[in-house]
Every structure is written in structure tokens, then in C-alpha cells.
Design goal:
The structure holds two protein chains of two kinds. Chain A has ten helices and ten strands. Chain B is built from twelve helices and no strands. The longest helix of chain B is centred in the middle third of the chain and has 30 residues. Classes of the chains: A alpha/beta, B mainly alpha. At the A-B interface, helix 2 and helix 3 of A face helix 1 and helix 5 of B.
Chain lengths: ~270, ~250
Amino acid sequence: MTDASAAIEATDLVKTYRSKEGDVDAVRGVSLTVAHGEIFGFLGPNGAGKSTTVRMLTTLLTITAGSARVAGVEVIDDPDGVRRRIGVALQEAGLDLRQSGRELLTLQCRLFGMSAAEAADRTQELLELVELTEAAERRIQGYSGGMKRRLDLASALVNRPDILFLDEPTTGLDPASRLVIWDEVRRINAQGTTVFLTTQYLEEADQLCGRLAIIDDGRIVSEGTPAALKSQLAARLGPGADPSLDDVFLDATGRTRERVAGEVQEVQA
Amino acid sequence: MRETAILARRALREGLRQPDALMPTLFIPLFFLIVNVGQVAKIFPTGGTPFLHGQNYAAFQLPTSLLTAASFGTAALYLVEEIEGGYFDKLRATPIPRASIVLGRLIAELPKSVIMSSAMILIALPFGVRIRAGLGGYLLLALLIAIWAAVFSGFMQLIALKTRSAAATNSVGFIFFPLLFLTPNFVPRSQLSRPMEIAATLNPVTYIMEAARSLVLDGYDWAALGRGFAVAAAAGVLVLFLSIRTVNRYD
């Protein structure tokens, strides 16, 4: 059943990579629905299929099987239509380091079809939004990690998107920069933009997301509001249990703290 | 075309902001010009060498140096840097024809190459090198070399899109050097040994070199120019077709 009112609707999404060693199923049938105006969290361990799912929804990867509607547009049939309605900030802050912040945003505006005057106005607006006005004329090469992330976020907003995809937007940032990004995401969402956020930080999901899904080994293994997921686990664990979102994540992905710690020690050795 | 023009302007700006990346494309061909001329100029004196048409041996070697300068493909290295850094995906997430991402860079190669060729010709002038075909010949020469620069960059961009690796893209660039040596590089084709003459005849770079050389030494040899521009155009169409197909299928 297609939910016409949904901002994002994916049905049995599959991504298979073909290689000399054989086929690799990165995503094995993901179905999810995100309502307009939500901040939806998409969690999972490394290699679970988070980024692959985001890249399919944002038209950057072909879909092997299944279907997806984003902002009311079929991804397979009209990828350009999807691109006009979404903003994308991927895992690596994808920036051209030789340009200045202002040049990068202006170029992005122009690629979305704005005239030179419109692009200049929108660029100024966005620089003010992410508080980079003073650094606007400097080459991006000299920006800090936090500034790069903010600029990347601004570049994802040039077209006033209906839906903003953020793939691990705070990975590698210091705590202060992370809080700044959280504030930006809340502010963007308050203006009516739906946010689809992948993260490895459970605290981030708990703080920001109204609803979330946990993906493991290419399949969604749990979905709901953070509070509902915690109370479901608490009910299963019995009286006195007060699980955190970390516990929910570990439970859903079949991992234990001991196993994760062991994996870390193994890597360190 | 609008997006292509916007991205071409960006590529030009990028080139100007990284002059240290352009310097080797000027100095290495000039180095080869000086070394090659220094080694064999005495064997081919101006007066006693009919194929020089009254010029010195540096004039014969100039087209080789211009072609070398046009065969560095730095645009592809910028592209692979963007693939690795994620900016390429940022561009792919905009509602523009994906072909414009590669076309923008190829178009930017044309003025960059004209600037490089002009600089090399200016440097060669005090050493007695003249372009026999005059100003019009200079313009045709610069255009031919610029088309080759775009073709070679397109070929390198193709490798960049396929391998997504700076190391692989850089290594493949060295393919040009055998192609450059399987040409009438030091003497006209008719004076090569038979196996080398066959190899040079099969090598498309030969015809571009001969067309460029005709402008410097002879004036307007329309047959040579026709062959040179036809080869450059055919290679351009092929590279364009493959690049657009590859970027559209990029996953």
C-alpha cells in the first residue's frame, strides 16, 4: 500500500553489488515510511546498510529491487524530480576545498537553477543561518571540521528542500560542534523540513529523533519511538529494568557489550 | 549547457588557484625541448636539412613539446580528488545532467591549453622558432593542441571514473609516453625505419603531430591539417561518448 501523505516511503529496497568474488547484498529488503515533518533516525552498526539505503533514496545509487517514493516522486522514474526536492549532506563533508564558502554555496544555488542575483541572496541567507558570514571569503581548505560540516549543511539547504538527508552529520566532530549541528537540525526541522538522519551515536538519536529504525545486516530489525523501544525492552527484561537506547541497539542487533568490547580489544591487539 | 558553463568556470578558477599543479606541465615539456634539441641539433643543421624548411631544429621539436604539455590530464586528478572527497556525489545530487560534470572540466581544458601553448611558443620565439603559417596558423595550432588536451583529459577522466583512484589515474597517464615516442618525433615519418614507420602510421598521435608541425614549418598543408583535425575530432567524439556513458552509469 502506498501512503501518499508520507515524505519517504520505501518498499522492499534491495541493493546488490556485483563483484568478481560474487554478489554482495548490502541492503536486503528495507521497507520504511517517514511522515512529513518528522526527524527520523536510521541507526545501525558499521556496514549494516545505512549509507547504502540513504544513497538509494537520494538517487546516488541504483536500486536493485523494490521501490521508493521521496517527496511524492518515484526515485526510479524521476530521479531529477527527487533531487529538486531534497537536500543531501553525506558522511564525508563533500566540499570543494579550493573554493571559498561563498563561492561553493553560490555554485550550488546556480546548479539548482537560480539566477546570479537569486544565488547571491540565498547564499547570504545561508551563510547567516550557519554563522559563517565572517569566514565566507576564505578558502574552505582552512575551515575547521565543524565549519565544514555547517557549510555542508548549508549547501544541502540551498533549494529549500522538503526533505533533508543527513548521513552521520556529526561523526568526527568535537562535542561543542556536535551540539551546534543538533541545534541547526532542530531549527531546520521546526521550519517544516523532514529530516532523515543516520547516526552511530545513540545519544544523538535519542536527543533528535521522534522515531527511529535500527538496521542490521541489510534488514530493519527494530522501529519505533525511542521511548517505545525502551519500554518494550524494559517489559521484556522484567521489573526494575531501565534500559537505555544503547541497550535497545545492542538487543536489536544481537550484540552484547562483552562482544563489542572483545571486538575492540581484538582490533587494538 | 548552462550547468556545463558554470562548472567549466569553476574548473578554470580551480586551475588558476593551483598554479603549482600547472608548472610541471610547462617546465617538463620545455626541459625535453631543450634536451632533445641540444642532443641532435648538430645532426640536423638548418641549412643542410630539407625537412626543416629553413627553420632550426627547435621548430621541428616544438609540436612534440606542445603535445606533451597537453597530455598531463590534471583535470582528471582534480576529479578523482572530488570523487574521493565526496564533492562529486554532492554534484550528482543536484538536478543537473550528469554529463555536465565531466563536460565542464573538458571545456575548461581548452582555454587552459591555449594559455600553456601560447606561453611555450612565446618562450620559443627568442630561440628563432617561427610559426610559418603566421597568426592564423598560431590560432589553428593552439586550437588543435587544445582539442588534444581535452581529448587526453577526457581519457584520463574516464579512468578516474572507472577506478576512482588517484594512484591508478596517475599511472595510466604514463600511457601517453609510448604513444609520443611511436611518432615521427625526431625525424619525419618517411625517414623512420620500416617498423617504426608502420607503428607511427598506426598511431593517431602522429597525425596530430604532423598537422601541428606543418603549421610551424610549412604554412598551411591542408591535407595534413585535415588528417590532424579529423583524428582529434574522432578521438574527441569517442572520449565524449565513453565519458558521458560512464558518468551516467556511475553508481
